[in-house]
Every structure is written in structure tokens, then in C-alpha cells.
Amino acid sequence: MFVPSNTKAETEPKYDRKSEVKAFDDTKAGVKGLVDAGVTKLPRIFIHPPELLHNVTNPNNKQFHFPIVDLDGIKDDTAKRKEFVGKVRDASETWGFFQVVNHGIPMEVMEEMLNGVRRFNEQETDIKKKYYTRDFTKRVAYRSNFDLYSSPAATWRDTLYFTVAPTPAKPEELPEACREIMIEYSKHVMGLGRRLLKLLSEALGLNPDHLIEMECAEELSMFCHYYPPCPEPELTMGTTRHSDNNFTTVLLQDSLGGLQVLHQNQWVDVPPIPGALVVNLGDLMQLISNDKFKSVEHRVLASNAGPRISVASFFGSNTDVSAKVYAPMTELLSEENPPKYRPTTIKEYTAYYLAKGLNGTSALLHFRL
Fold first, then answer.
1. Which intervals hold domain Fe2OG dioxygenase (predicted)?
2. Beta-sheet pairing, 97-101 with 68-70
């Protein structure tokens, strides 16, 4: 049984991180298991160096207005579509993030998806354990911290993962507590993701189907995050500073907040808006756009409130079988704008990203010319 240490790091003379990480992992109960056990002090594996927690206690910055794109009427009005494309372009070049409203996914579907994630995480641990695995080839997996063994410190988060495309998890593989809504919500998100890629293509001055034809939405994976209340949130993070290793992400978040993006070297809150979805661009979008669009770093603060629940839908190319090479698009290059990244495959990029873990350094640097 994993018995967390309640002694602060600086007063603990002996510390075997590897064995503590393994003991925690072997419980297969995740961070929720620690909360259920009544911990009042963080186990040492979750304590982050103070320099990585900079600005956590004073995160609010009111001088920025987070970009919002209203998709109402986008199909019927050519003038409106041009306006939407302009807003998407501005947000993608400066923030790498924006929120979309009137996107077509019913509010009740989004609320039930959040409820489904809650039901899964709050059921008996013995039921959840059969999904717990470190096998990254599984189409359905429950785990705490994908980089638990490689990161400097663990984060206060558990995740249920499942694949939607191109090879979807079978219905019987999905947890009963959230099976129906996972299937329904994923259909809605797949449609929205393809519509967003059309807008992003146009924002780059390309044919609307350009990014889709590049297979930027060939793969869809969902990460259902559960952030339990934390007894000492000032010592850890919900998710550490990172950028995403895909083309684009559509995020459903609840009303608690905690998501922040790094904008003009300042951490800015992403305000929860009822009915809105957060869209952010990933590393591979920045790579193929040759830095025109930005993959911006973001993080999630730990909190003593909660649980906080979010669902991140990752769009990319087929990691398993695709040998497609991605490089800055020739349509965007010129003598004045030469390629800034070397060609790579999804498999190579993903392998490097996973091995590196969320250590606060962008994986893009490894591929930069």
C-alpha cells in the first residue's frame, strides 16, 4: 500500500523518488485515491520546485481580453465568414488560443459529457482499476500523469483517455459510467474540428480543405481530465506548463477555471464561458505554418476547490500507421520566409514529446533549423 510522506521536502533527509512513484502508480487509484484516503499534506512526488510555481499565487491579469469567435451564421453569410476568418487569423497569430460560441454542440451534450467524466472518476476504485494502464497502445486507458516516471514532479490530475478515429474504441471497451455520452459527444466534436480546420486553412490564405487533405484531422483522441481538490495547491500544479503535440485541440471545461495561457510573457486566465469551447493550436500547426500560427504554452493551476473537470479533444494525423512527412508548407514559404523546421513524421514527433514529458521546454526546439 502506498503511504504518502507528510514531511516537507526540505526536512526529509532520504528520498527515493523512483520507489515512491512506483508505489503510487501501483495503487491504480490515482490522485483521487489520495483524496479519498484523506491526505492533508502533499506526497513529495507532487511538490514542484518554487521557481516552477512562479506567479501561481497572483495569476489574474485584467489588461487582456481573451479572443472569442461567434460562429453564428457562418454557413449562410459570406461577409460574416470573412469576418470570422479574420478573427481566427488574428487569434491564431497572436494568442494561439480562442474560444468559440454558437458552435453547434448542444449545451446538454456538453454538460452530460462533464457529468460522465465525473461519474467515472467517482465510482468505486475497483471498477476504475481495470482501465488503469501505462500501455500507450490501448484505445481506452485510465492513468494519473502520462509522464509520471519522466517528469520532475507529478501533477494533481487523473485522466481517462480514449481514441475516436481512425480506429475507434469499441463501445464495449468504454466505461459503462460514461459510454453513451462519450460516443455522442465525440461525433459532435469530430464535425466541429473539421469545420475549424476549414477556417484555419482560409486564415492561412489556402483552400478551405487544405489542412483536412493534409490529414490534420485524421486522428481524434480524447483526454478526460479530473482534478480533485488539492490540500496544498500552492505546492503543485494541475497541469504543468506545456504546448500540445498535435495540430489543434478543442477543450470543454467546467465553470471552475484554472486554465491559463502564456501571452506576452504573462499568465492570463481563460475565463469559463457557459456554452463555449476553447480552441488551441498545437506544435504541429506551428511547424507546418512556419511560425505564422502559434502553439502557445498553457497550464492548469491546482486548487482546493473542485473537482475541476475538462475534456480535451486532440486532432492529428494517424500516429500508428502514417509515414506522412510534415514540414513547413511550401505555399507559405519564400526567400524572405525560408523553412524554420526540419521535416518530421507524427511518429517521430510524438515519440520525442512523450519521452521528454511536460518539463516546461517546447518540443519544437528539437526540430528547429
1. 218-317
2. parallel
Q: What is the pTM of this model?
A: 0.92
Residue 105 gets the label, from left (phi > 0), alpha (psi -120 to 50) or beta, of: beta
Distance in angstroms (rounded) separating the CA atoms of residues 234 and 237: 8
User: First vs last Cα of the chain: how many Å apart?
Assistant: 48
Local confidence pLDDT in tens for the 369 residues of the chain: 555 554 444 445 577 999 999 999 999 999 999 999 999 999 999 999 888 776 654 445 567 889 999 999 887 778 888 999 999 999 999 999 999 999 999 999 999 999 999 999 999 999 999 999 999 899 999 999 998 998 889 999 999 999 999 999 999 999 999 999 999 999 999 999 999 999 999 999 999 999 999 999 999 999 999 999 999 999 999 999 999 999 999 999 999 999 999 999 899 999 999 999 999 999 999 999 999 999 999 999 999 998 999 999 999 987 666 678 999 999 999 999 999 999 999 889 988 988 887 766 789 999 999
Sign of CA dihedral 147, 234, 232, 10: positive
- CA dist., res. 298 & res. 362, Å (int): 11
Give the integer Cα–Cα distance in Å for 317 and 221: 11
Helix 107-121 with 179-203: angle, nearest 10 deg = 130
Are the C-beta atoms of 5 and 133 separated by less than 8 Å? no
- Report how far residue 97's alpha carbon sits from residue 90's, in angstroms, rounded to the nearest whole number: 10
Q: Which segments of the chain does DSSP mark as H helices, in order?
A: 17-27, 30-36, 78-94, 107-121, 125-129, 179-203, 210-213, 283-288, 346-356
Q: CA angle 237-296-327, nearest 5°?
A: 130
Residues 273, 68 contacting (CB under 8 angstroms)? yes
